[in-house]
Specification:
2 copies of one chain form a homodimer.
Chain A: E1 2-7, H1 16-28, E2 35-37, H2 51-56, H3 64-72, E3 78-86, E4 92-100, E5 103-109, H4 117-120, E6 130-133, E7 136-140, H5 149-157, E8 162-166, H6 181-193, E9 196-200, E10 216-218, E11 224-227, E12 233-238
Chain lengths: 263, 263
């Protein structure tokens, strides 16, 4: 079993030192956790006025702060964290990294940009990574990416056992008693692909914006197995590789049953 | 607003006359209903021993019984109903029809076969129809078809305002308080495509098989707006065309935001 923890941080825009310290503390406190997931743009906050503001706090994966995170990772823990990336090309991306104590395992630039992100970031052009780790094969995408079922399918078909999703879900209306719509979408992505989906949202009001605070861990069967609690974390044990066999019963297979000839 | 009614019938296998009468009665009782949806294989039942048994009750859309259904349709009602089809090619399909008082509007052969259906039916080779009606553009698929997000996306991108889904959902385990997994998948299909999804399941134990009895009407926002009640129907008013504009906010569009270059 894999010990999963999503730490639903509240970054503060314009306070990168505070955010950095908060990430570092979350990493240091993750002893015994196999997979620690932090939110989208955890190092910076989300509600940028413009591209210049995002650029002012953007980092490369070679940044000293990232080196500090890597150095702080307890043995055997893998961490996912969102941050604004300054690319080699001088462009600012909404990115996420997967790293452990040995260094950065994967870096990903969000492909589907939500709302005013379109005025702040450039969309990535590389598909979501699937990284073979000791926990299983981990896919990595960011927030709105998850709402494209073609994309979650693609990651699953490239072998992801679990999809790790740092998010910032702006608060949306929902009927009493319902989960955030993004969680319903994540459950369907899990169920239709037999793939765990692990979403870490954020908290804290930022420039008037509230959030769903919908941090949720979903099994490969599509069921919610952990939601964020009063401590600000969603935590559980999960067999990340339990959905690797895509057969369902003697006659069906989630991928082989696909009929691209009619889609 | 469109008045939608899903009538969750309990067909009896081996009693086609009973099933025919039950369908006819449901159609006759649908005055004032704009869209009446009946289950998959409503004319025959589901738990066939083999292909020969299905063949013995299979019909063509030109069957006299279908003519009786058409004749019974109240003015302005559109009906969806599942049945076993005997094709011109002599092959037996798991099909559904859309019809009104003027005749059959569309016929569809299920493309994704579930479980032992694979030993009974041949899978269809034509994609789900999208039919322009006075209620809006109606897509039509059957049960397990719905669990392929590529397929629901395809129907939405071909213009379906609402997806009509006759189903037979065999009872599956689910955690206390959760909806059937197929409903969660339908909610995600609705939300990610801004398309209403209308699922009519069945009831009644047949050869030991129970059903989810998960009949549900879902809005284009992905919310459940009607579930089956004690009368055996799910019924509501719904604006079927409310999700036709696929923009969400000033910067996003559900279809134009897709990035096939990375899928």
């Amino acid at each position: 079993m894999t010990r999963v923890r999503c730490r639903q941080l509240a970054p503060r825009i314009g306070e990168p030192d505070y955010n950095h310290a908060q990430i570092l503390e979350s990493i240091r406190a993750s002893g015994g956790v196999d997979l620690l997931v932090l939110p989208e743009l955890a190092s910076s906050g989300y509600m940028f006025h413009d591209e210049a503001e995002a650029r002012s706090v953007a980092m490369t994966p070679a940044d000293d702060r990232v080196a500090e995170w890597v150095e702080a990772v307890p043995q055997d823990t893998i961490v996912a964290c969102g941050y604004p990336e300054l690319g080699d090309d001088g462009v600012v991306y909404n990115s996420a990294m997967l790293f452990d104590g040995s260094g950065v395992l994967a870096n990903y630039r969000k492909v589907h940009l939500w709302h005013e992100e379109n005025t702040v970031f450039r969309a990535g052009d590389e598909r979501a990574p699937v990284v073979d780790t000791r926990l299983g094969r981990l896919g990595l995408m960011v927030c709105y990416d998850l709402e494209f079922p073609e994309y979650t399918r693609n990651v699953a078909m490239r072998g992801a056992d679990a999809l790790v999703v740092p998010t910032n879900w702006p608060l949306v209306e929902r009927p009493e008693g319902e989960r955030p719509p993004e969680v319903v979408i994540a459950q369907a992505a899990a169920r239709t692909n037999k793939m765990a989906v692990i979403c870490c949202d954020r908290s804290g009001v930022e420039r008037g914006q509230e959030w769903n605070e919908g941090t949720t861990v979903i099994s490969h069967e599509g069921w919610v197995v952990a939601e964020v609690d009063a401590s600000g974390a969603a935590e559980c044990d999960l067999d990340l590789q339990a959905g690797r066999d895509k057969r369902i019963g003697p006659h069906n297979h989630l991928f082989e049953d696909r009929r691209p000839d009619v889609y």
